[in-house]
Amino acid sequence: MVPQTLPEARLQIDALDEQIQKLISQRARVAQAVANIKQQMGDTGNHYRPSREAEVLRRAIERNHGPDGGPLTDETIARLMREIMSVCLSLESPLTIAYLGPEGTYTQAAVQKHFGDSVTARPARAIDEIFRDVETGAADYGVVPVANSIGGLVSHTLDELVHTKLRICGEVTLPVHHHLLSMQGDFDGLTKIYSHAQSFAQCRKWLDARLPKVELEVVSSNGEAARRAAAEGKGTAAIASLQAGRINALNILASNIEDDPSNTTRFLVLGKQEPEISGNDITSVVMTAHRNQPGALFKLLQPFAENGLDLTRLESRQVRDSVVTDYYFFVDFAGHAADPKVRAVLETIRSDAAFFKILGSYPRAVM
């Protein structure tokens, strides 16, 4: 019943809040029961299941379009459900997630979007350190940037993926908006701007048009850029997120300075597990073709087309320390390696490749 007066509306909200709280508590108790059941079955590892999380979020979004759907956007519904799942999962098995620090980086924002706030976020100083933290067990999972719609590939991540034993367990897509931040209140006297190389690439046109004479210094992350701008004070600025600005008490000199308003960064979730089939999955592989064989790359890609597997990404990366020019080819396609049809295709490609490695099969990002 739609309330007609303010007191009626407030009474109805209070009653709904009580119901919501009871249901969330009930869900949490069931989550604890799930943890006990898994322990009795001998499952003593962490209880995060990427395919199950993706399934729950997709169902929540589907319900938002059904007869009981309301005025909230799909993104809002997904965020609310993710936080509820995050809290409940923390009761089953608290997670530690390594990310590219310090606080305030876009990678930390990707952690929060994918895992919620009820995890321990562990900042790392470099991408290779994130891989090591997960490999050694210092973190349960790691989140690393892999590509940006403007700045392109993150080469350090690709290099590490070739050699690691970790698997890609998930992906996160994050709209990225850059802001010029400083201790001072205007552009006057700015001599240096700190930021990550990717952020400079994503804001190149804006910087060339408005601050062409200011020195640009590359640092390890946007969070580090904000920290340095705060420490050095007037004359310096940083390109970073609003969160980094709040953490370091910086003023906003300009907002949304990225050259493309649809600027998006893709992140990968790294772990030791093999996610189950979720019904909407991506498989990532890396391979090299045999040298000096005409049509070698075509031969590797042909089985995808012949078997109706949709390629969603194809990127090349030169092999480091190669005497001659060899390239790794990174391929993403729709499907899961556990599917018999997909497995047969991958075995065909493996037999024709000079080097071949499955990086992971994982649920496609829900939002």
- Shape descriptor reads globular
Radius of gyration: 23 Å
- What oligomeric state do these chains adopt? single chain
Tally of DSSP β-strands: 15
SS strand fraction: 25-35%
Order of helices and strands: HHHEHEHEEHEEEHHEHEHEEEHEEHE
Main sheet attributes: strand count, strand direction, barrel closure: 6 strands, mixed
Helical residues, percent: 40-55%
Within CATH, the superfamily of the domain at 274-363 carries the name ACT domain
What structural class is derived from the secondary structure elements?
A: alpha/beta
N- and C-termini, Cα separation: 32 Å
At CATH level 3, the topology of the domain at 274-363 is Alpha-Beta Plaits
Number of helices, where a helix is a run of at least 4 consecutive DSSP H or I residues:
12
Tell me the name of the CATH class of the domain at 274-363.
Alpha Beta
pLDDT < 50 runs, ≥5 residues: none
**CATH architecture classification name of the domain at 274-363:** 2-Layer Sandwich
Q: What would the average pLDDT be, to the nearest integer?
A: 92
